[in-house]
Amino acid sequence: MRPAESARPGLARRRNEPPIPEGVDSRSLHVAVRAELRGLPKELAEIVAAHLVVAGQLVDYDPELAYAHAEAARRRAARLPIVREAAAETAYAAGLYEVALTEFRALRRMTGTPDYLPVMADCERALGRPHNALKLAREADRAGLDPALRIEMIIVEAGARRDLGQDPESRRILERAVAQARPDDIAPAAVARLRYAYADALLADGQQAEARHWFVSAVKLDHDQQTDAQQRIDELDGFLIDYDEGDEDDSQPSHEPGRDVLP
User: Fold this and answer.
1) What phi and psi, each to the nearest 5 degrees, are found at residue 79?
2) Domain of 9?
3) Chain-centre distance for alpha carbon 253
């Protein structure tokens, strides 16, 4: 048992709570996060910080376990926005969209910021409620999101239109946004995601040449490879890879509602 956990009986690991691995260093947390945790008793802050560190380390590799750690932190410090944000983001990564939506709603109430509207709308879409996603998109129009978040909302809005069978309107929304978005004014990664979404819509409409053009345009801005635009280009060019039969399921990319936004 970690010293911090044995210091007070009330802070011992709770049932169904994942253990904190040895060697976790809470000093790796961002200084702003550590500052927010200072309002907690020292022993409690150490445990919450450790769970947050592990959640951050696992979210891209084992999102379910990452959420378990974030939820452990949330149960101990639910009044802290940074803890609720960790729970929301890990739940979203794990595909627990109802849980994520609840947490993002709580965050919005706690902080008063509209910044969570795009990811909330994407959760609604993932839960099969595109009309609710469109309501949040209209709310975001009035809220005045910053340009990168506005792009994320446009991508979700277009996806919701597609869910409703309104493909022409979905493409129109993306086409207008692509014409207006410039990487000199907006984060290149956000513009790359917008161009990727537009290319995907064009490809669904059978416009392969135009789709390829916009996938290439996305690759040029996607420095961190947040999309699989290059793979889509290779597929359009007839680039094939032989996979072992047992790996076939893992090799196929999937596209589904949800995960349209990067929280």
Assistant:
1) -85, -5
2) 1-112
3) 17
- What CATH number has the domain bearing residue 253? 1.25.40.10
Based on the domain organization, do 201 and 235 belong to the same domain? yes
Q: What is the pLDDT of residue 86?
A: 97
**Do the beta carbons of residue 45 and residue 37 sit within 8 Å?**
yes
To which residue do tokens 């509209």 refer? 114
Which of 74, 92, 112 terminates a domain? The answer is 112
Name the nearest CA neighbour of 197 among 182, 222, 215, 220.
215
Residues with pLDDT less than 50, the chain = 1-10, 245, 247-256
Is 45 found in the same domain as 153? no
Terminal CA-to-CA distance of the chain, rounded, Å?
34
What's the CA gap between 199 and 196, in Å, rounded? 5
Q: How much is the pLDDT for 1?
A: 34
